[in-house]
Specification:
The protein is mainly α. Helix content is about 75%, strand content about 5%. Strands 1-2 form a two-stranded antiparallel ribbon. Strand 1 (about 60-65) and strand 2 (about 70-75) form a beta hairpin.
């Protein structure tokens, strides 16, 4: 009878829901693929294909002034030339000199400016908007302006120092101070970047530890040494990595200010690679040097980021 019969389960709703969920999941997957496809195409065209071509050229003879062009396989000969080229190592030394001094000064000034901006009560938004102006300008265009400011005859810097009795200088024509002039330009342009990132890190710090330290009567230096700096260290590490990588591939400022001169006193590695590959047309040697430079940069970045990720993992486990 009807009491003994087992009703069939109504799967219309569940089946419809499952079908819709499956369809929605498939749609989400396709949507995500559509989103990343343009970026992947650009990376393939402008990064991976040139990298593969550079790797291939670095193992071949490629002198564009020769009728052979990109010719036979030469193995590690170009890498041997790069490692024994005195001009290559001199440009590496100048690059490291620039990167170390510029990044250290930018980190110190940027963190100091971040603390000042964090403490002000009025016009904080206006101050942040004004400090970001150097970042909004093209390095090459601003470099041309600074080139005229450095001019030995009618530059504004010589005018200012002459007003206080300091002898006028040939800022970009003196090999002793030309690199310092380039560093000053880079510090002016990129210190705001460090300041803004450090300011964001300061504003994201929790308030409770600082309130407890104030109740205990801790000094500002002790609070900075035991609370602020350790909690801000991950942010500063990330900024250090970004600025170091950007500093070692300096090019725009050198082209607009000194073009590697006077002599080769400001010829950093990227400009030397341009000169070797695009002026002397030795793409094979330039490619080998560029790949060595890329390898060193990746190793340096990997070591710093490994330490950064370890610290972040330790902080996450401590919160749990």
């Amino acid at each position: 009878m009807s009491t003994g019969s087992v009703p069939l389960p109504d799967t219309s709703v569940n089946g419809s829901t499952g079908s819709k969920a499956k369809h929605r999941a498939l749609s989400d997957t396709l949507y995500s693929v559509f989103l990343i496809t343009p970026a992947m195409i650009l990376i393939l065209i402008f990064a991976l294909v040139p990298l593969a071509y550079a790797i291939n050229v670095s193992f071949r003879f490629a002198d564009l002034t020769s009728p052979r062009g990109v010719a036979e396989w030469v193995g590690l000969e170009n890498y041997h030339f790069a490692l024994n080229d005195a001009f290559f190592w001199s440009s590496v030394q100048r690059t490291l000199h620039f990167a170390i001094f510029a990044v250290v000064i930018e980190m110190i000034l940027g963190v100091a400016i971040a603390f000042l901006l964090n403490d002000i009560k009025w016009f904080k938004g206006l101050a942040r908007s004004l400090i970001i102006l150097p970042l909004a300008a093209s390095p090459f265009a601003v470099g041309l302006i600074w080139r005229y400011m450095y001019h030995p005859d009618f530059g504004v810097f010589n005018y200012l120092i002459s007003r206080v009795g300091i002898p006028e200088q040939n800022w970009l024509g003196n090999s002793q101070i030309a690199m310092g002039s380039v560093i000053a330009f880079d510090v002016w342009q990129w210190t705001p970047f460090v300041a803004l990132i450090a300011l964001a890190g300061l504003q994201a710090l929790p308030k409770e530890p600082f309130e407890a330290a104030a109740l205990d009567g801790a000094s500002r230096w002790r609070v900075f040494r035991t609370l602020t700096f350790p909690m801000l260290a991950p942010v500063l590490t990330l900024v250090l990595v970004l600025r170091t990588v950007d500093a070692v591939r300096l090019y725009d400022a050198i082209v607009s200010l000194t073009a590697g001169g006077p002599g080769t006193s400001t010829e950093v590695l990227t400009f030397y690679l341009y000169r070797l590959g695009m002026r002397f047309f030795r793409l094979d040697q330039a490619s080998a040097m560029a790949l060595l430079f890329l390898y060193a940069t990746v190793v340096f970045t990997g070591l710093l980021m490994r330490r950064f990720m370890q610290n972040m993992a330790a902080r996450t486990r401590a919160k749990q």
